[in-house]
Design brief:
Strand content of chain A: over 45%
Structural class of chain A: mainly beta
Number of helices of chain A: 0
Radius of gyration of chain B: 13 Å
Distance between the termini of chain A: 41 Å
Number of helices of chain B: 0
Oligomer: heterodimer
Shape of chain A: globular
Strand content of chain B: over 45%
Largest interface: A-B, 23 and 23 residues
Order of helices and strands of chain A: EEEEEEEEEEEE
Structural class of chain B: mainly beta
Radius of gyration of chain A: 14 Å
Shape of chain B: globular
Chain lengths: 116, 110
Amino acid sequence: AQSVAQPEDQVNVAEGNPLTVKCTYSVSGNPYLFWYVQYPNRGLQFLLKYITGDNLVKGSYGFEAEFNKSQTSFHLKKPSALVSDSALYFCAVRDLRGGSQGNLIFGKGTKLSVKP
Amino acid sequence: EADIYQTPRYLVIGTGKKITLECSQTMGHDKMYWYQQDPGMELHLIHYSYGVNSTEKGDLSSESTVSRIRTEHFPLTLESARPSHTSQYLCASKRVDEQYFGPGTRLTVT
């Protein structure tokens, strides 16, 4: 089965500290992985993706994610959190099942709260 | 911000009314999607389209219908709104692997 899991409903971080938002996946084949961010009353915004190549992917707003094939993980990271990073973060994997046409499967989302 | 638009942004309507949520994009993308999302919760794919005259149902069963007569336009219609339809509806279009989302329509059915 194709799936993606975000084990934490909420992550709390102090401003200036590093942050990690966790994501694990299950796909039959090479994964296409994505991170999106959603600010209140807005649609989702693309942050970064992993298709192939370097396991460390850099994206928008200083975020990066590390692909780990052995642990089937794609954790989102940032070295120094900002209050403005507070939002809802979604991990997604491309559905590789036949007939799915590459639609995305989203995790349940993790609420990131950065305190001053 | 991507060039994808949704109207209205907010809608409060009574039970039994017919409503159409509008979605349009100016990027010329063939693939478009509708997701349903309860506030702060996960997204559920309810409809998608791969181009003009192409529509498919998503993973979450929905009483809504969609049409794709023009590339840039992908409206969603509820023939008879019910309180269970209260939710946020997000439209998206896709270029290669990246989906671009509209701002959403928050629907409340009373």
